Amino acid sequence: MVNTNTSNKKIVAIGGGHGLGRILSSLSDYGSQVTGIVATTDNGGSTGRIRACQGGIAWGYTRNCINQLITEPSVGSMIFEYRFRGNGELNGHNLGNLMLTALDNLSVRPLDAINLIRDMLKVSMVTPIDLLMVKFTFYKRSNNLIVHLFAFRKTNGFSY
């Protein structure tokens, strides 16, 4: 007979997009110790706009996973999940993305920034796959798909 008790299991899920957040949320319903290892390659919506003008790692998937793991709604969680509306520059931006970007700009290491937010919102472990600014570029040559991965790390003011 298989033991289906998941309350003492440690589960790690790796991925990105909106699917990983939903998986983590579902797994946390079982009382498991859940860790999400999240892709940092998002470049759409609010995250894409922030990356275009600020650089840095993509916070969107990480923010989404944190949102999905919130079990105790609070003013802090409502602020973190808030998305601006209107006609101005902030339209469509998610405040959580801006908060994580601000911490990154204050030279807080990405993992420390995530842990500060996690502690504030009382959520499970979430960690980025990479701490670099990563971009995927796809080229198509005569029906063959060529994939390029670019990683950027600032060292003494230089990127490579």
Automatic annotation (TrEMBL):
Q: Its domain of life?
A: Bacteria
The cross-references to SUPFAM superfamilies, in alphabetical order and at most eight, read: CofD-like
Q: Does the keyword Ribosomal protein apply?
A: no
Name a GO molecular-function annotation.
LPPG:FO 2-phospho-L-lactate transferase activity
The record's keywords, sorted A to Z, are:
Cytoplasm
A Pfam family matched by this chain, by name?
CofD
Q: Which InterPro entries match?
A: CofD (IPR002882), CofD-like_dom_sf (IPR038136), Gluconeogen_factor (IPR010119)
Record PANTHER family: GLUCONEOGENESIS FACTOR-RELATED (PTHR30135:SF3), UNCHARACTERIZED PROTEIN YVCK-RELATED (PTHR30135)
Protein name, per record: Gluconeogenesis factor
